[in-house]
Design goal:
Mean pLDDT: 80
Shape: extended
Oligomer: single chain
Helix content: 40-55%
Largest sheet: 5 strands, antiparallel
Strand content: 15-25%
Number of strands: 13
Length: about 550
């Protein structure tokens, strides 16, 4: 068998394979024997059907198609093994299958061409001396007081109010009905669909409802009805309401005030595992100090990664891009599923297609970053010591001690190793570069930069994507409203450690949907992806069979 290789664009390799006459003859005889064993023809026992009857019953073309398919599959597998080619994804047949069937004759040579993705070659420019700016997040001591106050509000007792008007901070029970302030030309203004409710409880605090609604209730007395003019925000998820003026008729039915518990040791014991308020406060202070440090570190790493990508040249195989997009869309589905949403109903083919298009730019960036980091690690011989991996694993296991959770230790080791290696590479870049810390909020991406990013990463450019995006925005709005952001802010261990642990737990229980890890989890860089074929997991492990036309397998 003769194999000729050709390097193709987009990290592909072309193979021209010449099948020998002996191979074609053996394959033909093997296919006939298979048809003979399995054919069920009246008047003949299985395995005893004459060859001529087989040819008349199934046709020469159908049998030849089976032979050609087998020859291509087998010869491609042998070519990859003998030529020691690392491959990704499925082969793409470059020759016409129908023409190959027409050309095939038992005992004659057959030549065909195929292509397949291969691991990309990474070319790094000068990556030492990178100069970047990153926002410094400073610890705000007022955040602890804010969190403790939120704890008190959650534990507050609602007491009916009499003899005074509504004030900020009250809880109000209202009936309301909304209508558009202006109707279509020549028509009266109609009611807002879904814009009315009875016995609706709302906290009279800024930002708790449509701007202007809560403010309009200030000064009202129980039993009073009032019309309040509001304007829906321009970025309101329901496009038919965004930016439109409306009028709500509000009836204040009941007013309650929040009686907050005293901030004492009894309260600390009720809302936490600490015995005193001092211990609770100290724990929160430590947490938010570490959080500020971690956010600053993340900002520095993000700045370095963004700059590093500018110095990498790599042609990405579509197989690798598809894998990363699949991962991103799957994570989105898991997050919605964790919120109790019916993913099967929500993820229609149109929505999935739109999500894939939206995920493509970020997926490409993640791959570029991963490959660049992997190349630096290789060039600089950066590795993580086994002792450091063991120490981190023990730290994570200690945090989950006493909990009924099963860990996949191999997966935990892999994820910890990846995380530590990423940190080590980025620390190396920082040591050999320059990171200027600037005040938080001072760095904003320019519109021009965002446009350049979209163009460089292949923005879909489809008009329907923009309209479909509104659907996902509405879904995201529902998920965000249903989440308790403040509660998540003070629960559990540090998010990064939790993400690593959860990934190992998920591996031990694959039937359970993965816990959404938020931004930290979605940004994890799997450095194994830069070493395709060296123990990585995912679609590269799938069969590399070519998808043919419906062919002529024996009945």
């Amino acid at each position: 068998m003769k194999v000729t290789q050709e390097k193709l664009p987009a990290s592909q390799i072309g193979l021209e394979i010449e099948i020998t006459p002996e191979m074609s003859s053996k394959a033909y005889e093997k296919a006939l024997q298979e048809f003979t064993r399995n054919a069920n023809i009246p008047g003949f026992r299985k395995g005893k059907v004459p060859r001529q009857v087989l040819l008349q019953r199934f046709g020469s073309s159908r049998i030849k198609a089976t032979v050609v398919e087998d020859l291509i599959q087998d010869s491609l597998k042998k070519a990859v093994e003998t030529e020691k080619i690392q491959t990704m994804g499925q082969f793409s047949l470059q020759s016409s299958f129908d023409e190959l069937v027409e050309q095939f004759e038992p005992g004659s040579p057959l030549t065909f061409a195929a292509a397949i993705d291969v691991p990309p070659e990474v070319k790094l420019g000068e990556y030492t001396g990178l100069t970047v700016q990153a926002e410094e997040v400073k610890y705000d001591s007022g955040k602890v007081d804010e969190v403790l106050e939120n704890y008190r509000k959650r534990a507050a007792t609602l007491v009916p109010v009499e003899g005074r008007v509504a004030e900020p901070g009250d809880m109000a029970i209202v009936d309301f009905a909304g209508r558009f302030a202006e109707g279509p030309e020549g028509e009266e203004a109609g009611e807002i669909p879904g814009g009315s409710a009875e016995d609706f409880q709302v906290e009279l605090s800024e930002g708790k409802f449509i701007p202007g609604f809560v403010e309009g209730t200030f000064g009202m007395s129980p039993g009073e009805t009032k019309e309040v003019e509001v304007t829906f925000p321009e970025d309101y998820p329901q496009q038919d309401l965004a930016g439109k003026p409306a009028i709500f008729t509000i009836t204040l039915k009941e007013l309650k005030a929040q009686e907050l518990p005293d901030l004492d040791d009894d309260f600390a014991q009720e809302v936490s595992d600490f015995e005193t308020v001092a211990e609770l406060r100290e724990s929160l202070e430590t947490r938010y100090q570490k959080e500020a440090e971690q956010k600053t570190k993340d900002n520095k790493q993000e700045a370095l990664l963004t700059e590093l990508v500018k110095h990498v040249e790599v042609e990405l195989p579509e197989t690798l891009v598809k894998q990363e997009i699949d991962y991103s869309v799957t994570q989105t589905a898991m997050q919605f599923s964790q919120q109790g949403m019916d993913v099967k109903k929500m993820f229609t083919p149109e929505i999935v297609s739109m999500l894939r298009q939206q995920a493509r730019p970020e997926s490409i960036t993640r791959i570029q970053r991963t490959l660049a980091l992997g190349e630096i690690a290789k060039q600089q011989s950066l590795e993580v010591e086994a002792s450091a991996i063991e120490a981190k694993m023990n730290e994570i296991l200690a945090e989950y001690a006493g909990q009924d959770r099963e860990f996949d230790m191999e997966r935990l080791r892999e994820v910890v190793s990846e995380d530590l290696l990423k940190d080590k590479i980025l620390s190396w870049l920082e040591e050999h570069g320059s990171v200027e810390l600037v005040p938080e909020g001072s760095l904003k991406p320019t519109e021009a930069a965002e446009e350049d990013l979209e163009e460089s990463q292949g923005s879909p450019g489809e008009t329907e994507v923009a309209s479909d995006a509104a659907i996902v925005d509405v879904v995201a709005e529902v998920v965000e409203e249903g989440a308790e952001a403040e509660e998540a802010e003070v629960e559990g261990a540090e998010e990064r450690t939790e993400a690593i642990a959860e990934e190992a737990i998920d591996a031990a229980a694959p039937e359970t949907p993965k816990k959404p890890r938020g931004k930290q989890g979605s940004q994890r860089l799997n450095l194994n992806r830069s070493r395709i074929g060296e123990g990585g997991s995912g679609s590269e492990e799938r069969s590399q069979a070519i998808a043919f036309h419906p062919s002529s397998r024996p009945p």
